[in-house]
Specification:
The complex is a heterodimer of chains A (289) and B (232).
Chain A (H helix, E strand, L loop, with lengths): L1 H33 L14 H6 L6 H41 L5 H4 L6 H34 L2 H12 L3 H35 L3 H31 L12 H36 L5
Chain B lengths: L2 E12 L2 E12 L3 E5 L6 H8 L7 E6 L6 H6 E4 L11 H11 L5 H10 L13 H13 L5 E5 L7 H14 L5 E6 L2 H4 L5 E6 L2 E7 H8 L3 H8 L3
Parallel strand pairs in B: 3-7, 3-8, 5-6, 6-7
Antiparallel strand pairs in B: 1-2, 1-4, 8-9
Helix pairs in contact in B: 5-6
The chains are: A mainly alpha (289), B alpha/beta (232).
Chain lengths: 289, 232
């Protein structure tokens, strides 16, 4: 049944995301094309004469430079906005799918299907995380594209190679950061779900209640996270002597490891708490309008 | 045939308000039952409890001997008092969903009913009128061979011609071994199809009886009894 729920959830959200991703890809590629550097055809026309010939108005002189500059600014602004759009649309879809489909009128259909509440929450969570990951990966890829287009790729690659050469612990850190981001994606979605599930019980206005619940959850989890990080700092002595250089490399690597593991652990703990909170509210306290 | 729905001391409160107050009754399988009462008497609350859309404050409600959950939802076909479709979905998407989740859903029957309603399968829900959406919803609900149909105000808010259509659809399509529970305050329209009646007033059961018995005892129609019981 979980598979069926996921299938229907993907189907219901795919259209929005495929359009979003297509539009983003077009803007990202356009941005890479107009970025000065390897492919900077509009203002370094002399380097690419054949393509420049097809855009004669931009092919030389101060006027062309200015026109190119204006166009470049517009495209870059569009690229910046499209990154924001990726984040906002992903967030809004994740919120609306839970709010409308389970807690709104559509809940009368969904919640009377022969499926457990856990499966409902899990299917929405997994699909939400899938789209979050896709959106993030696409934005990261578009960033790499800019690096390639500007010719900065070589410097980036060199720097990255140097970073990797620091030792085997670097690979572990990359794995841990990716894991932290993935856990973070789950936790972020679960915090939204928990807020929406609690919301109607806090205020009569469901949306107002959900916003209030989210603020409360956010503040509490921030304190928990900050507390855990401070605890690590205290126990390692960096707060006691914050400006002391680390005694040796082994200790500093161990400290970064600890920070990352604690961050992953605390995030996972918050996620589990939000899961049980959401589950309890949706199972026991639900009251569809 | 056994009991299909049973309430034992079923109570539901919302803050200070008691919507259902120690309700106890049984519904026998294979009957058409009217859940009758004025607005605010607890009809919808009772049906929502049967569908696990609410959780009892006290007491219990059992469907075929089971506490509401995924297993009871397999055998209940529920028509809520509102339209529940995702506006961006097509009619066929929803049909596919019913076919996917309900083993007792008869897709051919649903398609047939939609055809007679003149509804295109590839129509988006947002292009349909409210009345049509309600009929599509009824067609889906009645295309299941369910053990228990819970129909919440199926004829509320529609014109008399549509009422006839709805009642005929229910009568022509329900699984005859199944049980139908219809909640309404429009009694005269459905009186003729009911086997039993449950009168709810202020969250309490005031009468559970077969229609024949009621007529014999009171010498009146269900509608007349209702007006007498619920006189303002």
């Amino acid at each position: 049944m979980l598979g069926k729920l996921i299938k229907h959830e993907l189907k219901a959200t795919a259209k929005t995301f495929l359009w979003l991703y297509a539009a983003f890809a077009v803007i990202a590629v356009l941005n890479a094309i107009v970025t000065p550097g390897t492919f900077g055809i509009f203002w370094e026309a002399s380097r690419v004469p054949t393509i420049a010939g097809t855009v004669p108005a931009l092919a030389g002189g101060a006027e062309a430079d200015m026109a190119g500059g204006v166009m470049r600014s517009i495209v870059m602004a569009m690229y910046g906005l499209s990154i924001a759009a990726m984040a906002i649309v992903t967030l809004v879809v994740i919120i609306l799918r839970f709010f409308r489909n389970l807690l709104g009128d559509e809940g009368y259909l969904m919640l009377t299907l022969p499926v457990s509440r856990e499966q409902h929450i899990l299917s929405k969570l997994l699909v939400g995380v899938i789209w979050s990951v896709c959106s993030t990966v696409l934005v990261a890829l578009s960033g790499l594209l800019v690096l390639v287009a500007t010719g900065a790729w070589e410097y980036f690659a060199d720097g990255f190679a140097e970073f990797l050469a620091m030792g085997p612990h670097v690979y572990r850190w990359i794995f841990m950061v990716v894991l932290l981001m993935l856990v973070g994606a789950f936790v972020g979605v679960l915090m939204l779900y928990a807020a929406m599930a609690i919301g109607p019980n806090l205020l009569k206005n469901r949306i107002g209640g959900s916003v209030l619940a989210f603020i409360i959850i956010y503040v509490v989890t921030s304190f928990v996270t900050a507390g855990a990080m401070l605890a690590v700092s205290f126990s390692s002595g960096t707060i006691v002597a914050p400006f002391h250089p680390f005694v040796n490399e082994v200790q500093s690597i161990a400290l970064v490891d600890t920070y990352l593991w604690v961050a992953i652990g605390v995030s996972a703990g918050i996620g589990v708490a939000c899961w049980f909170l959401t589950r309890f509210m949706v199972k026991r306290k639900l009251n569809l309008a | 045939m056994g009991t299909i729905l049973e309430c034992k001391g079923l109570t539901k409160t919302f803050g200070q308000v008691t919507a259902l107050d120690e309700v106890t009754f049984e519904i026998e399988a294979g009957r058409i039952v009217g859940l009758l009462g004025p607005n605010g008497s607890g009809k919808t609350t009772l049906i929502k409890l049967a569908n696990e859309l609410l959780v009892p404050t006290a007491g219990e409600i059992l469907i075929d001997g089971m506490v509401p959950g995924p297993e009871t939802k397999k055998i209940i076909s529920y028509l809520p008092d509102r339209v529940y479709f995702d506006e961006r979905m097509k009619v066929q998407d929803c049909a596919a969903m019913f076919a996917d989740f309900y083993e007792d859903f008869d897709l051919a029957k649903a398609t047939d009913m939609l055809g007679s309603l003149g509804v295109q399968l590839d129509a988006l829900f947002k292009t349909l009128s409210k009345g049509t959406k309600e009929k599509v919803q009824l067609a889906f609900v009645m295309s299941r061979a369910a053990k228990l149909y819970l129909l919440d105000e199926p004829i509320g808010g529609v014109d008399p011609a549509a009422r006839d259509f709805i009642l005929n659809t229910i009568l022509r399509n329900y699984n005859e071994e199944g049980t139908v529970l219809i909640s309404t305050h429009l009694i005269s329209d459905i009186e003729k199809i009911l086997d039993d009646v449950i009168f709810l007033a202020g969250g309490r059961v005031v009468r559970v009886q077969s229609v024949d018995e009621l007529r014999e005892q009171e010498g009146k129609s269900v509608d007349e009894c209702f007006r007498e019981v619920f006189r303002c």
